[in-house]
Amino acid sequence: MNPDAIAMLYAYTALGVGIILAFAGGASALGWGLIMGKYLEGIARQPEMRPQLLGQSLFSGGLMEAFPMIVLGMSMWFIFANPFIGAAKSAVGG
Amino acid sequence: MNRSMALRPSDLGTLLVIQFILAAVVVGFFLFSRDGAAAQAAAYGGGMALLLAWMLGRRALRAAEAAKTHPGSETFVIYMGAIQRFVVVLVLFALGMGWLALEPVPLLAAFAAAQLGHLINSGRVSLRAGSGRMEKLG
C-alpha cells in the first residue's frame, strides 16, 4: 500500500471519529437534559417526591449514558487500533 | 410516604454485583475461546464499567444528600458527575488501547456487557417502585 492511501485512510477515519464523538457527546447531553427536565417537572408536581425521583432519574441516566460510552469506546478503537488499515492491506495484498 | 423508590446505598452494591457477574462471564468466554491476552483486555473493559458504575453511584448518593440539605444543588452534582465520567472513560479507553495496547474487541465487548447491568438494575428498581405503589394502594 502506498503512503498516500494510508494517509487517506487515517484522514477519513479521523473525520469519522470526529463525527462519532460529536454525536456521542451531543446525544449524551440531550439525554441528560431530557432526564433532568423530567426530574424538575416531577418535583414541580410533587415536591415531596424529590429524593425518590432523584434515585430513579440517576439510574435511568446511567442506563442512557451506557450507549454514548460504548460509542466512545468504538471511536477510541478506530483511533488507537485502526482496523481499516489492516483490512485494506490484506485486501490489496500487503 | 412511599420510601420504596428512594435511593439506597445497597442499590449501588447490587448494580456493581450485576456488572461484575456480566463482566466475569465475558472474561470467561474470551479466556476459553481465545487466549489470556483477550481475557486480560476483557477484564480491563469490565473493570472500567465497574469503576464508572461506582462513580455514578457515589455521585447519586452525594446528590441525594445535597437534595436533602441544599435542595436544587443536586442537578449541579449530577452534571459534574456526567462530565467527570465522560472524561474518565475517554482517558481509560485511550490508556487501554493506546498505551497498554490491549485488544479492542474483547475490551469493548466486556464493557458493553457490563453496561447491560444498568438495564437489569433499572428494571429491578422499577419493579420495586411498582410493588411499593401497590402496597401503598393496599
Number of domains of chain A: 1
Radius of gyration of CA atoms of chain A, rounded to a whole number: 21 Å
Oligomer: heterodimer
Radius of gyration of chain B: 18 Å
Helix content of chain B: over 70%
Task: Profile the largest sheet of chain A.
Answer: none
Q: Would you tell me the overall average pLDDT of chain B?
A: 82
Q: Beta-sheet strand percentage of chain A? A: under 5%
Describe this structure as you would to a colleague.
The complex is a heterodimer of chains A (94) and B (138). In chain A, 89% of the residues lie in helices and 0% in strands. Chain A is built from 3 helices and no strands. In chain A, α1 packs antiparallel against α2. Chain A is rod-shaped. By secondary structure, chain B is mainly α. Chain B has one domain. The longest helix of chain B has 34 residues. The two termini of chain B are 14 Å apart. Classes of the chains: A mainly alpha (94), B mainly alpha (138).
How are the SSEs placed, and which strands pair?
The complex is a heterodimer of chains A (94) and B (138).
Chain A: H1 3-45, H2 50-80, H3 83-92
Chain B: H1 9-33, H2 36-69, H3 74-99, H4 104-137
Helix pairs in contact in B: 1-2, 1-4, 2-3, 2-4
Compact overview of the structure:
The complex is a heterodimer of chains A (94) and B (138). Chain A has 94 residues and is an all-alpha fold. Chain A contains three helices and no strands.
What brief labels describe this structure?
heterodimer, A: 94 residues, mainly alpha, F1FO ATP Synthase, rod-shaped, B: flat
